[in-house]
Amino acid sequence: VDDADNTQAHEAQREARWLAALRPMAATLPESGIMTVINYGHDKAGVVPFWAGEGDVPTPAFIAEAAIEALRQGHTFYTYQRGIPPLRQAVAAYIHRHFLADVDPERVIITGSGMQAIMQTVQALVGPGDEVVVVSPVWPNIFAAIHMQEAVARPVPLQCAQDAWRLDLDRLFDACGSRTRALFLNTPGNPTGWIMEPEDMLRVRDFARARGLWIIVDEVYGQFVYDRPRVTSFLEVMEPDEQLIVVNTFSKNWSMTGWRVGWVVIPHSRSLGQVYENLVQYNTSGVPAFLQYGCVTALTDGDAYLKSLVEQCRQGRALVCERLATVPRVRLVWPQGAFYLFFQVAGEPDSLTLAKRLVDEAQVGLAPGSAFGTGGEGFLRLCFAASSATLRTGVERLVAALA
Ligand SMILES: Cc1ncc(COP(=O)(O)O)c(C=O)c1O
User: Which of 130, 139, 148, 313 lies at a CB distance of 3.0 to 4.6 Å from 181, suitable for a disulfide?
Assistant: First the structure.
């Protein structure tokens, strides 16, 4: 026992030395709580995975074929840092088709994922000591990106009302102080499905204008909306020369999570365009050209696929909510958007412990609410983007385990 203790103590010392040798910002980055459960469960056979933000089918063949064809044609060289021109044009056309906004393709920058779009945005906007007010609970990587700039995230929690998640705008505005540089909104939101109403968007816009703040909006779930025909994009309520950055991705709309391609819409500014180009150059040196050709096809030919995916999620939402609502311990509100159910189980305040237990006892993988920051503990997140057979299997196991 002594030997074992000594070995353990030595190893702990060695690890502590490694961490002390690193930049404190990097050494103190937390592991994503979503990954904690995935790492715990992904080698366990038979677990139905609802923990990550993706479905269970690969990218549709017509999109994959376009990338394969581009690869065959030799699109294997370094390419435009801001994205290939046809892709930037296709993004602008997509925005025009789906939202009441005209965006000049010059404002579109292609990034190596939505995550990179967020990272480059915080790199451009905030530094040590700056504050970003973030509506939470929210995808943990947003907090981590801010932390990596040695800036401070100030979370403002949504309230879980009887029928929906709500944001108290006064609390949002009160959280903004002299060091605040930006507001970060994710609407429709992960994990709650919260959607900011257009009248609130106007109030936020006016507040940000008056204070000279940036608005960063993550609209990656902008198509996943169930009880209304569509959502309003911030691009519809703000002018091209205002301090607005809109983050998006190919991951969710066209089942392309593994491609790692996203985009941002930045204000109409030659200098800002150059800054984003530089940030692409020095972070990733651009997105592989052959992937970008696949992305052009997703945007130009992918509306029908997108529509069917949203429809599948609508049915998935109903299946999951109706079944889990039959469990007396479960408290839930139907999410308005995105593709997650964020629910509570009475008597289970520790979401990480519960998520791990459900991996072992129900063979279902969920994300713990504690991963999503202020307001998240006590909840579990279930992604309902999978096909109905997978959802049914997983949800029946959950119902049995939680009952
Ligand atoms: C709110 C939000 N933003 C951005 C992303 C990034 O997506 P990706 O990096 O796959 O493009 C995700 C992924 O889950 C997300 O939930």
Answer: 130
Give 399 Cα–ligand 1 centroid separation in angstroms. 28
Q: How far is CA 246 from CA 103, 109, 120, 238, in A?
A: 11, 11, 12, 11
- High-pLDDT (> 90) share of the chain, %: 97
pLDDT single digits (tens) 207-247: 999 999 999 999 999 999 999 999 999 999 999 999 999 99
Pocket residue to mutate for ligand 1, from 231, 249, 255, 259, most atoms within 8 A of Cβ? 249
- Which amino acids bring their CB within 6 angstroms of ligand 1? 53, 113-115, 139, 186, 190, 218, 220, 249, 251, 257, 262
**Nearest C-alpha to atom 6 of ligand 1 is from which residue?**
114
Ligand 1 nearest-atom number relative to CA 186: 1
Ligand 1 centroid vs 201 CA: distance in angstroms?
A: 21
pTM of the model: 0.96
CA of 142 to the centre of ligand 1 (A): 9
